[in-house]
Amino acid sequence: MITKNQVKYIQSLGQKKSRDIENRFIAEGPKLVNELITAENCKIVQLLALKEWIDENPSASDHTEVIELSDMELEKISQLTTPNQVLAVIEKIQWKNDPEIKGNISLVLDTIQDPGNMGTIIRLADWFAIKNIFCTTECADVYSPKVVQASMGSISRVRVEYTDIESLLIENNDVPIYAAVLDGSDITKMEKISEGIIVIGNESKGINTEMLKLANVQITIQGKGKAESLNAAVATGIILSHLV
Amino acid sequence: MITKNQVKYIQSLGQKKSRDIENRFIAEGPKLVNELITAENCKIVQLLALKEWIDENPSASDHTEVIELSDMELEKISQLTTPNQVLAVIEKIQWKNDPEIKGNISLVLDTIQDPGNMGTIIRLADWFAIKNIFCTTECADVYSPKVVQASMGSISRVRVEYTDIESLLIENNDVPIYAAVLDGSDITKMEKISEGIIVIGNESKGINTEMLKLANVQITIQGKGKAESLNAAVATGIILSHLV
């Protein structure tokens, strides 16, 4: 059973404003939720689930409040087109230490607004063992339900921070900065790197000129066909697979 | 002005069944429509547009019927969340010759169901000058509005065919077949190719075992992190950037 106020509260976490005030977000579906339950840095506040999920996960209630729901109740609180057994209310992820930029590879995202792309890029970073993603505030919110679902649990392993990117690049000017542009060096001919900040821009607008000025190397994925641009997540994947 | 029957007809083209019967599809927005108008193999049947688009494209009516619409009328026929000036009814694309597989690089898609991924892969093929994509019938329909919009005009340059893939692979067994799997040869260490059929499978189910048996080389994008899989479009992009 769930009260009207609880329904309202969970629905409100679909909005960035409420997530920021409450410092919480939601994640849905057995695969994702079970992964986040076991993640060290994820504090689950509450689990709302169908009987079938609760029966299959008897230890879930050891550390967290578990509320049993009917299909109809789950439908009310779910952000998915097809609600999927369980919804978790989770505290925003806390990272113990400061991000290590020196000696590592980090990603910078400038105005990646599509939540699907944002989630896919987080998964990609995880795939290539990249620990940090720094975003302009124009990027999609990492805790928006669509980003959380698209990231498939990688949000617990990749730190995503929203910050003033120009200051970040200036402060870290001893780390090489690579910017993805349309007319830079051919990415397929570059050496692999072990340290660097890779800046990915918006698909249609590219990278902000002030940021671009701070880059040391401009890199490009050369096309032979007539397509005008690549999807930002695909471009990130190609760049990481050649550089990392 | 547009009649109720016209509205109904155009709405029906949102469904695969109607598109197959009518042999037509729709495309929306000035950028995409203007690109398809100039494409050699696209026969525009009808343009339905706001006055502002018609004023900016006076020659559009030279070869095609152009119907002026109000904002409200466009909203009724549009498949977009935010209708965008113009909608074109187009005949399904006709390709003059048979696809050339020998001596070229082709893509095979097994059960790529997400229309966004499908459209992104078509754009990617175009970027890397790949002319042919062969799909299992479980793949998203290339003429579905979401695929058309995501492909950004690349559908006029890349041939997408739905066919029996096993027969296709058997008939072309003199062309090397590469299959993307989880434990094959590291894609970053492979030589570039000038001929081949690259088979991409469904993100969660992989490639059908019968098809896999027909492959000559199994290829993999090696990850160092903990993410379980890559988005199918991203994986295609990485593979093409290394092989092509």
What can you see in these coordinates?
The structure is a homodimer of 244-residue chains. In chain A, 33% of the residues lie in helices and 22% in strands. Chain A has 244 residues and is an alpha/beta fold. Chain A has 2 domains: 4-91, 60s Ribosomal Protein L30, Chain: A; 105-243, Alpha/beta knot (3-Layer(aba) Sandwich), CATH 3.40.1280.10. Chain A has 10 helices and 10 strands. The longest helix of chain A has 13 residues, at 115-127. In chain A, strands 7-6-5-9-8-10 form a 6-stranded parallel beta sheet, with helices on one face. A 4-stranded mixed beta sheet of chain A has the order 1-4-2-3. The first copy, chain A, has helices at residues 4-12, 16-22, 30-37, 51-56, 71-77, 115-127, 145-151, 165-171, 209-213, 232-243, and strands at residues 24-28, 44-49, 65-68, 86-91, 105-109, 132-135, 159-162, 177-186, 196-200, 217-220. In chain A, helix 6 (115-127) runs parallel beside helix 7 and helix 6 runs parallel beside helix 10 (232-243). Chain A binds chain B through residues 116, 120, 123-130, 152-154, 157, 187-188, 221, 223-231, 233-238, 241-242, 244, and chain B through 116, 120, 123-130, 152-154, 157, 187-188, 221, 223-231, 233-238, 241-242, 244.
